[in-house]
Design brief:
Layout lengths: L5 H14 L3 H8 L3 H14 L13 H12 L5 H7 L6 H4 L1
Helix pairs in contact: 1-3, 2-3
InterPro entries: IS150/IS1296_orfA-like
């Protein structure tokens, strides 16, 4: 997967929101898995473009444990927990 710049992410969102481009089309254009594109679109749609202004975050152990417990014990979907916690990608929970 290629690393997307902030400008790329904004363009992806604009193509989707304003021009109705599909995640498949965006995936091919930017060389990114369509699942990751869909997560990015949900994240920006839910939190707005300001979510892209965050810098790299190191999460404390208690935060990680609470997130994992939501998935394993509470049986919440990993993607929903990722989105709820505004994680930069849904793969963090899986990892």
């Amino acid at each position: 997967m290629s690393k997307l710049t902030k400008r790329d992410k904004i363009n992806i969102y604009n193509y989707w929101k304003n021009y109705g481009k599909s995640s498949t089309w965006l995936s091919k254009k930017y060389g990114v898995n369509s699942t990751n594109i869909r997560y990015l679109l949900k994240l920006i749609d839910h939190y707005g473009l300001n979510i892209l202004n965050r810098s790299h975050t190191t999460y404390p152990i208690y935060f990680k444990e609470a997130a994992i417990k939501r998935v394993l014990i509470n049986k919440e979907l990993a993607d929903h927990v990722s989105l709820d916690l505004a994680l930069p990608n849904s793969g963090l929970i899986h990892n």
